Amino acid sequence: MKNILQTPVRRRQVLTGSLALAGGAAAVTLNRAKPAGATSHDGDDEGIDHSSHYHGDDNSHGSGRHGDMITVGDVGTEINGFDPTDLLTDWEVGTVTKGADGQTIRSFTVTAEDREIEIAPGVTFPAWTFNGRVPGPTLRATEGDQLRIKFVNNGSHPHSMHFHGIHGASMDGLQGSGLIDPGDEFTYEFTAKPFGCHLYHCHAFPLRAHMHKGMYGAFIVDPDPAKHTEDFSVANSRLLGSPENANWQEFIMVMNAFDTNFDGANEFYMVNSVAHHYMKHPIVVDRAKKIRVYLINATEFDPINSFHLHANFFDYYDHGTTLTPTLKTVDTIMQCQAQRGIIEIDFSEHEPGMYMFHAHQSEFAELGWMSMFDVKDLG
Ligand SMILES: [Cu+2]
Fold this sequence. Notes:
Blueprint: H1 11-16, E1 19-20, E2 27-28, H2 77-80, H3 84-87, E3 91-92, E4 95-98, E5 104-120, E6 123-130, E7 138-142, E8 146-153, E9 162-163, E10 185-191, E11 196-201, H4 207-212, E12 216-222, H5 232-238, E13 248-258, E14 268-271, H6 277-280, E15 283-286, E16 290-297, E17 304-309, E18 314-318, E19 327-330, E20 332-336, E21 340-345, E22 353-358, H7 362-366, E23 370-376
Parallel strand pairs: 3-7, 5-8, 7-12, 13-16, 15-23
Antiparallel strand pairs: 1-2, 4-5, 5-6, 8-10, 9-11, 11-12, 13-14, 16-21, 17-20, 17-22, 18-19, 18-21, 22-23
Bound molecules: copper (II) ion (CU).
Copper (II) ion (CU) binds next to loops.
């Protein structure tokens, strides 16, 4: 397949649906009702059939005009090796052992490697990855664990893992503290704290190149309920594997974007690397169980990203480092790069149906950052 990078793609081309890739690759157009490449729009909004449906079926749940404007076709797992639907709940908890003092030691291995990924149907991107995926593995630990993260650089450039957490200077992922050349390895050791929704990313320079190439991932630290007796049940509900936690539906969502022609502006926006994936594959949730989204903004080039939920409001925990919400009853939050937080949503009083969420920068939504919860009675 001819690489997308040989064909310059600009943001407005994608928006107007005029992008047709050479070499037999799939076309990207905004109108799913017509075959790929069958239309040619020369105006921003002309030719978009607002009567067509986001999913080719029932349009009674208010998706309306938004839903018309998504990429055509689908991204399989053949190139990427991961499915964004599976990635939502793919917690990497490492290998647990006990130290002599009974301390929990949690060990991970993360490998940097170059890998081409498919970010929209027929659109590939030459990524630099952690463990072959973008975002990298979602590393999840419990507050107070001793972490040992063995990092192996099998990529073509120097890389590191810089954790947003509390640790010593020697473990920071800079030159002399874990920034390593191809073929080298380094083990980061520190205590998992503070509890919250964090991230890690490569801190090699130029930083923006290593970020936008895909070198970031989630780092979740669950609170240790024993340390939070005043909010024990809340802390327990955040602890992966606890009975209280089983009453929640938890998802990792990393907001990201890709600059496919390397002009310093993004052509595609999304959650978890595939444009419009959760429009074509809505996230099925049980109406009776609350939703907890670990939301992280890894978007390069644009200073702000955002999350907006339709038809409902939610509570928000900035950085996830508190057990009471830092924002209550909001329907939109914004994050700068590396900002993150926990969103808690309750649909129990709602009718079942499709509930959209998306960036409220409209252009981001149209270029891929638009998703659906499919709220059902699964009882
Ligand atoms: Cu790097």
